[in-house]
Amino acid sequence: MTDVAVSRGKNCTLGQFSAMASPCEILLETADMTLCRELTLLAAAEAERIEQKYSRYRTDSVLSQLNQGAGQWQQLDDETAQLLTFANTCYQLSDGLFDISSGILRRAWQFDGSDRLASQAQLAALLPHIGWHQVQLKPKQILLPAGMELDLGGIAKEYAVDKVLQLLRAQFTPSSLPSIVVNFGGDMHCSRPRHDGSLWHIGIENPGLVDHAISAVGLTTGALATSGDSRRFLLKDGVRYSHILNPKTGWPVTDAPRSVTVAAPNCLLAGMLATTALLQGASAEAFLQAQGLKYWLVA
Question: Which tens digits make up the pLDDT trace of 17-32?
Fold first, then answer.
């Protein structure tokens, strides 16, 4: 079981654990430390369940089994079918830029802060195996072309945030529901406004100075998600290469903001829009303006 820590903050309690390669927090508008610990344990167990189910690093995960079965029709459970249907929507809305089949590009790119770029020969070998349009998806079945792999890294954490908040909300009656913030590595979802009318103050990270905020957002309800290149990039001959890759070319997106934060009704939608905005490159802000949601850009 995941280790959790609980502490008391100003007018709230804080539960902490690690999951999905991220620090995870549960902020709860209560002074009840026992309740906070119980909810944090529930949250950690749900995050662990989702991580184990959709991790590409576990050979026994549902995702790995789907990838191993490429080339034949495979059955889907309800949860996986819903996630893949969402991924299909992302692909369509982004004109093919948000593509969960593009994860195999990691074989050519290692975003470790070095100056090692992928070769065009490496990319040419991978590109034929990328393209969600090649997938055949039915309500409870999927057929991946042989050689294709799916990677849910672009949506799994945001999905986990929403599922954890849904689970925690279910522990209360509507009249007793406190304000709860689920925060997984900066992607977060809030249950309701605080009873005293105050805001949860959320810092937006400065991509040029990791662990330092450049502004604070007041959150009362809904979700925030951020996508950017503060931690994963390459630097060669003075040019910075983002880890956000164009699945059509295999190369990092150019002229994109360093960071995009989007506010939306749920974290899954916020994360998809933040990443899709970065994939638009120089057109990121125009894309966000068309969505009619609040957003913050860092150039």
Answer: 999 999 999 999 999 9
Q: How far apart are CA 287 and CA 280, in angstroms?
A: 7
- 124's CB contacts (< 8 A; 6+ apart) are none
pTM of this structure: 0.93
Pairwise CA distance, residues 218 & 173, whole Å = 26
Please check whether residue 129 is in contact with residue 53, taking contact to mean a CB–CB distance below 8 angstroms: no
CA-to-CA distance for 270 and 155, rounded, in angstroms? Answer: 10
Report all structural domains of the chain as residue ranges with CATH numbers, in order of start. Answer: 1-55+154-198 (no CATH), 62-143 (1.10.3980.10)
Structure tokens belonging to residue 238 = 């003075």
Q: Any residues with CB less than 8 A from the CB of 144 and at least 6 apart, and which? A: 66, 67, 69, 70, 71, 74, 135, 150
- Using CA atoms, how far residue 92 sits from 81, 89, 108, 139, 140, in Å, is 17, 5, 26, 17, 20
Q: Return the structure tokens found at 97.
A: 């830029």
Distance from C-alpha of 169 to C-alpha of 173, rounded to nearest angstrom: 8
Percentage of residues in the chain having pLDDT higher than 90: 77
The answer to whether the beta carbons of residues 169 and 191 sit under 8 Å apart is yes
Distance of CA 91 to the CA centre of its chain: 15
The ranges of the chain with pLDDT < 50 are: 209
Give me the count of residues in the chain.
Answer: 299
